[in-house]
Amino acid sequence: MVTMLSQGVVRTTFPPPIRKLHGSMEEDTLQEGTDNELVRRRMYLASIYHALPDYGSTAFWRAIEEPDEKAILPLEVLVKCLRLAITYQDDVGRNRIITTIIRRNQTSNE
Question: pTM score, two decimals?
C-alpha cells in the first residue's frame, strides 16, 4: 500500500505476512517424531565423540583415519574433532582431519 504523506513524501507499507497459527494434529505429530529422531541422532554422535581417545594420541589418530568402512567415524564427529584442532591451534592436526574429510567425501561422491 502506498500512502501520500505531504509534498511528495510517499510511504510504502506492506501487509503483515500470513502465518499459519496452528498446524494440524498430523503435522504436529510428524514434527515431534522428527525432533525425537534429531535428539537421538545428536545423542548418538555425542556418545561417539566422548568415547574417542584423548586428542592427539596415537589411538585418536587411528580412529580418525580408520580405513575400514564399517568402523569409520561419522562426518559430524570428524567436524567436531576439526573444531577441536582449530581451538588447540594444531595446524598439522587440522590438516590431517581435513584430509580425512575430503577423502571420505571424494569416495562417497564417486
Answer: 0.67
